[in-house]
Amino acid sequence: MTSQANQGDLEIDPSPLLTVLNELHSQYKLLREGAVAKYIPELAKVNPDLFSICIVTVDGQVYKVGDYDQLFTIQSISKVFAYGLALEDHGLDYVLTRVGVEPTGDAFNAIILDEQSKRPYNPMVNAGAIATTSLIRGFGPTERLNRMLEMFRRYINRDVFVDISVFTSERSTGHRNRAMAHLMLNFGMIDRNIEEALDLYFQQCAVMVNCQDLAKMAATLANRGINPITKEQAVNKHYIKDILSVMYTCGMYNFAGEWAYKIGIPAKSGISGGIIAVVPNQMGIGVFSPLLDVRGNSVRGVKVCEELSQRLGLHLFECQRKDYYK
């Protein structure tokens, strides 16, 4: 196991926070519960032993343990950031005409819409994410993809790329997502060019990141949309409360209620094994481990976040400003 604490490129002394991360990594690295995602063939090939934890504070300090440089596809965590881009492109009122904000209690890939409004329930489930991605502006698919990739760069401070093999795998097996798109087309929730919208959605899910990237992205949301490393504004600060609200109530799918009750911070998971969690005004947390539970959440990731919440008092309803890393 590798452990390190950085501020930019400068080494700093180990802190109590880094000690906690080392303890949690040692505690859970032997946990073998769960299974890797198999419904996307490329994801079934991942090494199940990969495991990393990273925290980035709003003042730019980085704490990381494990396989924090290992690249993987971001998958559903991308929904958070695509939602932010759609809000910037259209404003909240318009986006709400296409995608709601209600938790469903159903699986992330459920083919359901709100019976009255005909909207997908929220932007964190697949149907809502497809509708959200269809709102991204651009003259043609190349410009829209480039705008999406540039958006990720602002959060991460490096150019990102799409894993073509995973994109192709998702595109060729994504029949359920196509069914959702056609259902939404029927009710006017997305425009007619379904394949272009789906391609962009599959591409955003196949963007390659590592655990440190996830923590930077979460820390940017914790820091009112400003990347704490580069000080670049990654997303308009006026939409942070909207993004964090749907993360808190909907980000963990049909585990969202228990997550809010036990852990109590906005979060989002992805079926590649990533989890991001946001402690507003304090830090962003990234965890990566590809072994998933029956709901599609990282087993180790959930355990780590629960322990961090309990040890550091991160639950929103008990959290106070603390210098955990000093």
The gist of it:
This protein is 41% helix and 12% strand.
Strand percentage lies at 5-15%
Number of strands: 9
Mind describing the biggest β-sheet? 7 strands, antiparallel
Radius of gyration over C-alpha positions, nearest whole angstrom = 18 Å
What's the rounded overall pLDDT mean?
Answer: 90
Helix content: 40-55%
Give the helix tally: 12
Dominant shape: globular
Q: How are the secondary structure elements laid out?
A:
Blueprint: E1 3-7, E2 10-11, H1 16-28, E3 52-57, E4 61-66, E5 72-73, H2 78-90, H3 92-98, H4 126-133, H5 141-156, H6 164-173, H7 175-186, H8 194-205, E6 208-209, H9 211-222, H10 240-250, H11 256-262, E7 267-269, E8 274-279, E9 283-288, H12 299-312
Antiparallel strand pairs: 1-2, 1-4, 3-4, 3-9, 5-6, 7-8, 8-9
Features:
326 residues; alpha+beta; seven-stranded antiparallel β-sheet; two-stranded antiparallel sheet; 9 strands; disordered N terminus
What does this structure look like?
With 326 residues, this protein is of the alpha+beta class. 41% of the residues lie in helices and 12% in strands. The strands form two sheets. It has a seven-stranded antiparallel beta sheet with strand order 2-1-4-3-9-8-7. A two-stranded antiparallel sheet has the order 5-6. Helix 4 (126-133) crosses helix 8 and helix 6 (164-173) crosses helix 8. The radius of gyration is 18 Å and the shape is globular. The model is unreliable at 1-13 (pLDDT under 50).
